[in-house]
Structure to design on (612 residues):
């Protein structure tokens, strides 16, 4: 007589051998669960179709990856492994595993393992992934596409499941949704300033790098937790050893949060205090994402999404954050290689440096290459203490903190000399816009960046369109020393809700423009596929960006002329530096509706201006 308990004992022994039972952070439960969400989802999940609860033989969760759960369903007889239509959960292992996975997938990514047989030699194992809120499960495979047909470690289960496209998309959507949830929580309960909001996020993510803190943060009283939070942040910054940085400069912006009275005060709703709730939320929702997707600029994108929910945040930060798809575009235009040295003299949160590092890593095959990129390939300067702290946090989280970050004015003589010593061959910058002081004009920053590059280096800047079309003595000074290689007119609402119309300028450093035989290439890049939405700002709603980006980069690299998109023209400091001034209209794309629209606009214009 075959006995299902024998199959369960074989599975249990394999789990023991793989250290499921004796590894901290792994919870193995048998035919029950203490997890409230699991109990809720399995209520009414009886395999007999009744109203009672049902549980798989084994249910395994990992503290570090709370959005994944692994379940095992066992049957004694190999004949009971799988039914033809997968509709007999009571009688077949695969059917039962998928039955429970269907219920649990409302809140979890489920690895469902069906096991049948009575001995090690005859055991049959089928493994499936039911991604969270996905319509159907699919067989789980490794990176080579081979089916997982044995019992493996929980880390391996999660690793194979993590890079499934549906799981990755679901996690990304969850993360973006959580950014609004967290913003609303801070607004309603934390009572901190707008400029402190991103700091409390970055500081907490830095603290969560400390494994001892992760294990112990729930053991502190609310006021002790604030002190420990600050101590751990200082410790992590010290461990990171960012070159050219001062520990005080990096940690001082976090100090006001460490003594904020509201964060350490227990309330009836939150007896552990508000800071505890923030740490717990980030530990559960964000940190697992960071620890697994190492090539994903979580801090930059999470901040960007977080800041969309209030216009005040951007003003409080004192900067305009560069959209992530534009920082990526810069790295492609500059053709960043693994041995490039990239400079950003207005680093902000480090978006350009992170994008450059990502491109470098894609071309690196060894850990030695990556360490060299981190220690020598990325150089940044940021003057504002809060922004410097955010940039340092970003680099620590994404690159172990080895980037050369300088805190201070990029025009400081000591910093300037240090930048030149790095011998960077690529520069990227989004300078401060509309400064009242003429000495801080956008083109002053652009020239200073170019001056710090090696001869022939590529410098790319995104600046207001006024820099390209309005006469200015700085333009003559620029072209006296550097070549204007290309200018691209960008979408009018690129920085929505900020209304500045911008262009991208590409220069070749230390090669005077007047000595160049090459015409300047102009791109008309007004449509990046992004659309404005009420709550999310500009997003790539219809997934057009990748194709548009590749088309733009190809046109630029080949220096092609294409009607409606690009043109070449020799220019001087007195000329307009934009495609609109030289490009022929592509009339083939015009429609009757376009014509009618313009005529209607003209009629309204005449009416409003009371013209005959």
């Amino acid at each position: 007589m075959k006995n299902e308990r024998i199959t369960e004992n074989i599975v249990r022994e394999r789990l023991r051998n793989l250290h499921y039972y004796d590894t901290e952070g792994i919870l193995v439960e048998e035919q029950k669960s203490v997890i409230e969400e699991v109990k809720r989802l399995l209520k009414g999940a009886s395999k007999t179709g009744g109203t009672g609860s049902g549980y798989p033989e084994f249910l395994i969760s990992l503290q570090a990856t709370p959005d994944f759960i692994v379940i095992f369903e066992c049957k004694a007889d190999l004949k009971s492994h799988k039914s033809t239509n997968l509709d007999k959960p009571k009688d077949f292992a695969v059917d039962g595993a998928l039955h429970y996975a269907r219920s649990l997938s409302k809140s979890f990514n489920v690895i469902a393992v069906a096991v049948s047989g009575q001995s090690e030699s005859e055991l049959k194992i089928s493994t499936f992934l039911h991604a969270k809120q996905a319509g159907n499960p699919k067989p789980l495979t490794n990176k080579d596409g081979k089916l997982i047909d044995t019992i493996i470690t929980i880390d391996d289960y999660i690793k194979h499941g993590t890079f499934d496209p549906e799981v990755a998309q679901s996690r990304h959507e969850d993360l973006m949704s959580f950014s609004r949830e967290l913003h609303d929580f801070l607004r309603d309960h934390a009572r901190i300033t707008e400029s402190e909001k991103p700091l409390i996020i970055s500081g907490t993510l830095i603290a969560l790098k400390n494994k001892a803190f992760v294990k112990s943060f729930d053991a502190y009283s609310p006021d002790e937790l604030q002190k420990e939070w600050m101590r751990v942040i200082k410790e992590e910054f010290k461990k990171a050893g960012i070159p050219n940085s001062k520990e005080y400069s990096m940690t001082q912006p976090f100090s006001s949060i460490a003594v904020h009275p509201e964060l350490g005060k227990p309330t009836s709703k939150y007896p552990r205090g508000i800071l505890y709730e923030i740490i717990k939320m980030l530990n559960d929702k964000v940190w697992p994402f960071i620890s697994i997707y190492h090539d994903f600029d979580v801090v930059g994108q999470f901040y960007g999404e977080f800041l969309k929910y209030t216009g005040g945040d951007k003003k409080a930060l004192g900067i305009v954050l560069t959209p992530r798809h534009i920082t990526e575009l810069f790295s492609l235009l500059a053709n960043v290689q693994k041995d490039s040295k990239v400079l950003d003299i207005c680093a902000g949160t480090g978006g350009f440096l992170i994008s450059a590092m990502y491109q470098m890593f894609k071309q690196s095959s060894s850990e030695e290459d990556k360490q060299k990129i981190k220690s020598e390939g990325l150089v940044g300067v940021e003057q504002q203490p809060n922004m410097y702290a955010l940039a340092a946090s970003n680099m620590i989280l994404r690159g172990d903190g080895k980037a050369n970050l300088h805190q201070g004015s990029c025009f400081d003589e000591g910093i300037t000399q240090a930048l030149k010593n790095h011998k960077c061959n690529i520069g990227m910058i989004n300078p401060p816009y509309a400064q009242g002081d003429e000495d801080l004009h956008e083109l002053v920053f652009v020239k200073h960046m170019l001056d710090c590059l090696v001869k022939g280096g590529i410098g790319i800047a995104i600046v207001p369109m006024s820099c390209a079309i309005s006469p200015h003595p700085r333009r003559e000074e620029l072209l006296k020393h550097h070549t204007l290689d290309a200018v691209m007119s960008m979408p009018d609402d690129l920085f929505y809700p900020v209304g500045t119309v911008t262009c991208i300028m590409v220069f070749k450093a230390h090669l005077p423009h007047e000595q160049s035989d090459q015409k300047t290439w102009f791109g008309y890049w007004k449509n990046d596929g992004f659309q404005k939405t009420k709550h999310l700002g500009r997003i790539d709603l219809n997934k057009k960006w990748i194709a548009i980006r590749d088309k733009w980069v190809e046109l630029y690299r080949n220096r092609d002329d294409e009607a409606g998109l690009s043109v070449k023209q020799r220019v001087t400091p007195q000329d307009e530096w934009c495609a609109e001034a030289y490009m022929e209209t592509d009339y083939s794309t015009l429609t009757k509706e376009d014509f009618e629209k313009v005529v209607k606009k003209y009629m309204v214009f005449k009416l409003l201006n009371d013209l005959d």
Notes: The CA atoms of residues 234 and 251 lie 6 Å apart. The longest helix spans residues 165-190. The first strand starts at residue 26 and ends at 29.
